[in-house]
Amino acid sequence: MTPLAITAYTATTALGAGRLAQAEALDQRRSGLRPNDFGPAPRLDCWIGRVEGVEEVQLPPVLARWDCRNNRLAWLALQQDGLLDAVGAAAARYGAARVAVVMGTSTSSIGASEEAYTRLDRDAGGERFADDLQRPIVHTPHSIGDFVQHATGLAGPCVTVATACSSSAKVFAQAARLIQAGVVDAALVGGVDTLCGSVLYGFNALQLVSRDKCKPFDASRDGLSLGEAGGFALLERATETDPLQLRGYGESSDAHHMSAPHPQGLGAQLAMRDALARAGIEAAQLDYLNLHGTSTPANDAVEAIAVAALFPEALHAASTKAWTGHTLGAAGIVESVFALIALDTGHLPGTLNATIPDPVCGPQIRLAPERRALHYAMNNSFGFGGNNCALVFARP
């Protein structure tokens, strides 16, 4: 593919707001996980990656119809790292109608819908949402995409991708196709997912939530820790002077099982191979791989098998889920930001909380951090149903 420049990028997670907060926590090996304090008691006995201050965020009056916890986190994330200024400059350069908005999410604003059903208007026979939640847009999957478009004033194509945990990785591929087809000249991509009852109790019902801090790829791992996050990146056609680029993407749907990956990771391998091919590089040229690494027994083992089948031993591959928790539909953008930070700083994170690697892990799976210059970084994001996406980023 023709490289695309990443001219602005940011993430807000349990580690803090903006890129610097992420980079410092990764460097200090300081996790953002904390004992579950979300929602009404009794609460699940687990650890979560909760973003501080979301409840205090105030949307501008003109955006009041989109008000909900998910869109407040989106608004908080939009304010970081000069993102809005960069978006405004792109709109001025190309025209607002020539800049797309492509957002990823897993549950969007379902937390608002949960609240609406717990507060049904009893005067209307318990069949009507309370007046303050009579806002249909926040009860749809497109809530986040519609909100971001109105919050930024962009007027190009607006898409919300909802493919579970690969959602905000696939936005890069969607945007690349829009730009390369000439539909738009630039795209604001990103993803936001917030904690809610459906997420916590849904994953717990699948027996995937650990009572302890997650420890990806550790031999004794027993489940994930859930988190919330928001992040964004601005993509434009690349020039020779652009320091960070999207160089390739690969997508696959192996459809092996509703929630379990293919046992040999065939879909994951296909996505990674296609990303490398589009980037025009060999597997041996990849320096860093941010693994999906959820800390569930099946997912980590399958990903380790797939990585060992494709890459030489020199690759530094690690999971950052123990810093932020699994941020679901926002994982793709957050961990793409981590890959870009690695390209910027030369800091390759290890895998936090893991001490004894699962025997299935090859030497590519690293527990300790490393520092060195790198040119190519990949991010893996795999979702339910075998919906897979791999992205290759580069510093030319």
From TrEMBL:
One of its GO terms (cellular component) is cytosol. GO terms for biological process: fatty acid biosynthetic process. Keywords: Transferase. CDD domains: KAS_I_II. Pfam families: ketoacyl-synt, Ketoacyl-synt_C. InterPro entries: Beta-ketoacyl_synthase (IPR000794), Ketoacyl_synth_AS (IPR018201), Ketoacyl_synth_C (IPR014031), Ketoacyl_synth_N (IPR014030), PKS_Beta-ketoAc_synthase_dom (IPR020841), Thiolase-like (IPR016039). Pathway: Lipid metabolism; fatty acid biosynthesis. The keyword Iron-sulfur does not apply. It comes from the Bacteria. Residues 1-395 form the Ketosynthase family 3 (KS3) domain. One of its GO terms (molecular function) is 3-oxoacyl-[acyl-carrier-protein] synthase activity. Coiled coil: none annotated. NCBIfam families: PRK09185.1 (NF006618). Belongs to the thiolase-like superfamily. Beta-ketoacyl-ACP synthases family. This is 3-oxoacyl-(Acyl carrier protein) synthase I.
